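Weekly modeling sync, notes
Attendees: S.R. (lead), two postdocs, one rotation student

Agenda item 3: backlog of single-chain predictions. S.R. asked that every request posted to the team notebook include the full sequence so nobody has to chase files. The rotation student volunteered to paste the first one in as an example of the format we agreed on. Action items at the bottom.

Example entry:
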Amino acid sequence: MGEAFSIRGTDFEATVDFSVAPQLRLVGSADAAALAPLEQVVDKLHAELVASAKPECSIDLVGLEFMNATCFKIFVGWLGRIQELAPERRYRIVFRSNPARAWQTRSLRTLSCFATELVGIEDG
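Predicted structure, as returned to the notebook:
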């Protein structure tokens, strides 16, 4: 399995950890400045998950205060890439949200509609 990696900006941090199970942890504010780094992290993580044939990846949003629509669209595209895989190579994404942030609840419910069989949502 891959090695842990992270990106850090002024107001945003994304960390991928494989120590127990694949997890992407997002903290801070995912705005326009976070777009390109977030795309790179998601691309690298997707490649690792496909190569390792892991059945699931956890996305921890508990510390994420804000995500603009452009950054959120990265997750829509990611689900599309998973759906393009052969069924036996697909993996699930389980989002761990912060129930105190209503935008996460609304946005994740909408996201789950794109691929109900691939998305899980848990309160953090």
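Discussion: group reviewed the output briefly. The two ends are 25 Å apart (CA to CA).
Action items: rotation student to repeat for the remaining queue; S.R. to check formatting next week.
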